[in-house]
Amino acid sequence: MSEAVTRPGITADALLASLDPLLRAWLPRQRWFAGKGRPIAGFTLVTATELLPPTSKLGLLHLLIQVHQPQVTGQGGGGAPQPADCYQLLLGVRRELPPRLAPALIGHVTQGPLAGFTVYEALHDARMSGFLMEALRVRARVGKLRFERDMRKAIGDDLAPRMLAAEQSNSSLVYGDTFILKLFRRIVPGVNPDLELPLRLAREGCAQVPAPAAWFLADVGEEVNVLGVLQPYLKGTIDGWELALGELAKGRDFSDEARTLGRATADVHLALARALPTVTLGRAQVELIAEGMTGRLEAAAHAVPALLPYAPALHTAFEALADLGQEGASWTAQRVHGDLHLGQFLRSPAGEWSLIDFEGEPSRPLAERRMPQPPVRDVAGMLRSFDYAARSQESWAPEWAGDCRAAYCAGYAEISGRDPRTDPVILRAYETDKAVYEALYEARHRPDWLPVPLSAIERLAANGPATEAN
After folding, report:
1. Given CA atoms 306, 310, 315, 318 in this order, what sign does their dihedral have?
2. What are phi and psi for residue 50, nearest 5 degrees?
3. CA 282 centroid distance within chain
4. Coil, strand or helix at 64
5. Whether pLDDT at 77 is above 90
6. Strands 42-50 and 4-5: what pairing?
7. pLDDT of residue 167
């Protein structure tokens, strides 16, 4: 546990004891909390930083806190503890909470140094979130926190903040329709790709990816923890998922946009290949990829009985990939987006597309998310996304999905010079791996959606071409 930078006389242990009962009740209700369904065994305070002056009547506590939870019985380990997840919290502290902040309430402290105070989610408070922007603007240093910025980009001092209502694995604040600050909730030590890759792409002049204007970090021991990234707010945009669903509901073709998305993906891939090293995947590496896919399939089939009838046929997708590697086939790997789908693309009113959220799949280890991978992984994610969009309607539209998938691949080929469909073995393997992941996710979180990936599982088990949607 690190020392706390708090008000005079408040130690880290005392602060944690004061907040413990409130956090136990509040954290499991948050959309971004990854430990739902498991009891909280305890907390460890990594850092605690008071961001407001000690003389202030209000408090703004920045916490990095580890949450200890036992492993779910039946998933291996016999109830042994899992590595603790670390979360970033911004807590406001007031004697009384005004009515406008009632939805942000965490609780009333009854013990310890904060007894008699009310603690709440500070991101809902414009005064508190305004302090974050000011810290970025002036490149503040507070305790172990470092606020950095690109000095070439102007950041005004009068940008009114508001918190976006739709929270997922992170939280976002918009400042004056000019910037958006993404705050990472689940913190993993190391370089976050959502800061690393857009910075690299900005140096390459990649117009499809908004360049970071500022960011803030926490130095904990030898590790750097990326806590938040400030980027231009793309006002008036619509994401690809929402746009696709709207067009589909009206019975309109989406293949022209799909082709444009394919071109945009290839542009970003080429820029990433210029900005960062590429590697060649030979026999040993291809076998490891196939083994990883096989392992994920076996684990998913154990957890989702509906996968069991298809598992033997799905194995052939990964075996075929390993066989090609043994025969001497190789592929180029590079940095990729890592979690590409329609919702990651934003279209401006002028029709220009931008690509966001380079964090990768948050559930995967950071080291894995930063590894070079075949670009086809991103392509497979987009093909699955078109399928999802088509199946979200009451009436399944297989022709619509098939047209989009084919147009996307064609657009990708126009820029990259290589159509993903000309390499069907690796494309099928990655699409199968993605569909298996989807089936596990839906079974755990949205059982009503499980038929969507299962329909793809059925097709892929029958060795269907990657661009069909039948």
Report:
1. negative
2. -85, 115
3. 29
4. strand
5. no
6. parallel
7. 64
Asked if 365 contacts 192 with a C-beta cutoff of 8 angstroms, the reply is: no
- Give the Cα separation of 27 and 170 in Å (integer): 14
Residue type present at position 363: S
Q: Which residues pair with 210 in a beta bridge?
A: none
Residue 355 β-bridge partners: 345
Every domain of the chain and the residues it spans: 4-232, 238-461
**Cα–Cα distance for residue pair 123/164, rounded to 1 Å:** 10
- Smallest CA-to-CA distance from 33 within 75, 83, 108, 89 is with 89
The Cα–Cα gap between 376 and 163 comes to: 35
Measured from the Cβ of residue 29, the count of other Cβ atoms closer than 10 Å reads 9
Please give the average per-residue pLDDT across 32-54, as a whole number: 90
Residues 6+ apart with CB under 8 A from 253: 247, 400, 403
Grade residue 392 by pLDDT with cuts at 50, 70 and 90.
confident
Instruction: Show the tokens assigned to 98.
Output: 């005004």
The DSSP-derived string for 223-283 is EEEEEEEEEE--TT-EEHHHHHHHHHHTT---HHHHHHHHHHHHHHHHHHHHHS--EEE-H
Check pLDDT > 80 for residue 9: no
In this predicted structure, what is the pLDDT of residue 362? 79
Distance CA(211)–CA(438), nearest Å, equals: 30
Q: What is the CATH number of domain 238-461?
A: 3.90.1200.10
CA 290 to chain CA centroid, Å, is: 24
Residues 6+ apart with CB under 8 A from 179: 133, 155, 159, 213, 230, 231, 232, 233
Write the single-letter amino acid at 137: R
* Torsional class of 419: left (φ above 0), alpha (ψ -120 to 50), beta (otherwise): beta
Q: In 331-375, where does DSSP find H-type helix?
A: 366-369
pLDDT of residue 422: 96
Q: Give bridge partners of residue 141 from the DSSP assignment.
A: 146
3-state secondary structure of 62: strand
Which residues is 353 bridged to in the sheet?
Answer: 347
**Is 362 strand, coil or helix?**
coil
Could you tell me if 66 and 89 are in contact, meaning their C-beta atoms sit under 8 angstroms apart? no
Could you report the per-residue pLDDT of 168-188, keeping only the tens digit for each? Answer: 789 999 999 999 999 999 999
* Helical ranges in 335-450 per DSSP H: 366-369, 376-391, 398-416, 424-445
Closest listed residue to residue 292, CA positions, set 450, 418, 430: 430
Count CB neighbours of 444 within 10 A. 13
